[in-house]
Amino acid sequence: MSVAALTAGSASASPVGGGRFDRPWEGFAPASTELRDGDPSDAGLRSKPIDQAVGQIEAWTETVPGREHPMYAGAVGLVVHNGVVVSRSEAGYEVRYADGQGTELPADQWEPVDRDTIFDVASISKLFTSIAVLQQVEAGAVDLDSPVARYLPEFGANGKQTITVRQLLTHTSGLPAEVKLWTLPPQDRIPTVMALQPKSPPGTAYTYSDPNMITLGVLVERVTGDRLDEVVAEGITEPLGMRDTGYNPDRGELRRIAATEFQADPPRGMVRGQAHDENAWSLGGVAGQAGVFSTADDLAILGQTLLNGGAYAGERILGEHSVEQMLTNFNSAFPGNSHGLGFELDQRWYMAGLSGPHTAGHTGYTGTSLVIDPASRSIVVLLTNRVHPSRSWGSNNPARQALAQGLAEAMSVRPVRGSKSWFAPPQGPATLTTDSLGSVTGAAQVTFDAFVDTQMDGDGVDALAVEASGDEGATWQPVPLTATGPGAPEGPQQSLAGAGHRSWWRVQGSVPESSKPLRLRWRYAPDDQYVGRGVNIDGISVADRAGVLLDGERDDERLTPEGWFQTPR
């Protein structure tokens, strides 16, 4: 999906409606789209993959194989497809532990989570700061490609005079990843950020940096003359009706707020209702990189607003062009670190099968994540308090992946030919093997349709290969493949992998003439890293000069599956 298509199709409809992974939407959703509750079937989805993901997330509040502790104390999940909230889930507890060692409170003092539990969303706060910056760009008060020092003269010290606003938003400024402001006297904290020295020349490297966003928070305040929390409230949360979202939540709401960590340094005890992030806390709970508290429902509203091109329920907070900029990768020079203005893009480590060039999102250190997939008009929100009672208890990335993957697998990929295609689930491995096709007169031509949505990045490749054997399967040789269709690789390939195109490919290969009996197999071999939606194949045909050796549509009993199964969707 091109950036141009996002605008051009703003009011367009999908060719076949929702529920289709293989028919990505073009353009933004209609600005009038508002969230409504429903069932997966209301949105054309299968419920089983989502239910399985929810069940796993719930189980991880108690036991995790290979871990001493639960993955998190509590979790709230919410899944949206095409404007329909198709799943809500909550499990575990807002408060369960008394100290940093994991001493459990008496069971009658455990406080369960609910759908409206308020979580510290940590670095998801960066999205609110980014929107606030883009609002000032739209107002003409900020220019993305102007030096930050134009708005914050003191920032221009120590080699930062050429750093632009855009570079802060895309984390290419060269500033260090972190700074420990809470160890400094209050009056020295922001001046310390302004005086930082870049670790690399601006624009030459990607470094995810809290100081980038702290600086942008200060910039918003300087340009508007208002506090950042006031700007966010007036420009984002109040117009959108996000009534449970903001900084420094009212102490009267404490019973609705999930506890985070027991902190000994600084000596804060069990943190609840205050920013977990030490820098944000030291800045009064309001900072550009952290400090926002929110609920799953409120974050879903924000997600739908962006899918709508910046508007929701009659209120517009951004123009479509600004939203396009948030969904456009400006970091093509830094593979694996795709980034729009504020949003991370195409990050399979938490977006899983929803990953794509314009799939946007962010995570929070406390255990939160937001994924927005314009191609399927979907939103996945997962809020956990995985740092309760200690950050050392580990990551909740498996839960983030599970919920996004559940939605990806709930969408359909319809067969190209006939009523069913062969499907290899993303976790694999899987082989689909023919019986003996006999000797080959002239070269054997192998043709089939393939829908490939798999990992292919610096972390690994999950490949589909076709292999031939002339010795009854004792040894196998790769068949070079040529694929055509949107997003297909150019030229002959030893295997096929990739994602983001969400389209069927037509694939051809050739096996040399041989007097030995031919067998073929389609082998899907994922690694142990991240996954896509998986692989479908359809329309298998093998023919030589003498005629058809295999028609997979008519003679599917001649194919032996291991890990593959036939599916109508």
Tell me what the structure shows.
Helices cover 20% and strands 23% of the residues. The chain has 569 residues and is α+β, with helices and mostly antiparallel strands. The protein folds into two domains: 39-410, DD-peptidase/beta-lactamase superfamily (Beta-lactamase, 3-Layer(aba) Sandwich), CATH 3.40.710.10; 420-568, Jelly Rolls (Sandwich). The strands form seven sheets. Strands 1, 2, 3, 4, 12, 13, 14 and 15 form an eight-stranded mixed sheet that branches. A hairpin with a 2-residue loop joins strand 10 (311-312) and strand 11 (315-316). Helix 3 crosses helix 6.
Secondary-structure blueprint:
Layout: H1 3-8, E1 36-37, H2 48-59, E2 74-81, E3 84-95, E4 111-112, E5 119-120, H3 125-138, H4 165-169, H5 189-194, H6 210-224, H7 228-240, E6 246-247, E7 262-263, E8 269-270, H8 278-282, E9 292-294, H9 296-307, E10 311-312, E11 315-316, H10 320-326, E12 344-345, H11 348-351, E13 360-364, E14 368-373, E15 378-384, H12 397-410, E16 421-424, E17 430-434, E18 444-453, E19 456-457, E20 460-461, E21 463-469, E22 477-478, E23 481-484, E24 505-511, E25 519-525, E26 534-544, E27 547-551, E28 559-562, E29 565-567
Helix pairs in contact: 2-12, 3-6, 3-7
Structural class: alpha+beta
CATH class of the largest domain: Alpha Beta
Say what the CATH topology of the largest domain is: Beta-lactamase
Q: Helicity level, as a percent range?
A: 10-25%
**Number of separate strands:** 29
Number of helices: 12
Residues in β-strands, percent: 15-25%
**What is the CATH superfamily label of the largest domain?**
DD-peptidase/beta-lactamase superfamily
Gap between N and C termini, in Å? Answer: 22 Å
Major sheet attributes: 8 strands, mixed
- Return the average pLDDT rounded to an integer: 95
What coarse outline follows from CA principal-axis ratios?
Answer: globular
- Structurally, how many domains make up the residues? 2
Q: Cα-atom Rg, whole angstroms?
A: 26 Å
pLDDT under 50 segments (min length 5)? 1-5, 7-16
- CATH architecture of the largest domain, please? 3-Layer(aba) Sandwich
Organism: Saccharopolyspora erythraea (strain ATCC 11635 / DSM 40517 / JCM 4748 / NBRC 13426 / NCIMB 8594 / NRRL 2338)
Keywords: Hydrolase
InterPro entries: Beta-lactam-related, Beta-lactam/transpept-like, Diverse_Enzym_Activities
Domain Beta-lactamase-related: 73-404
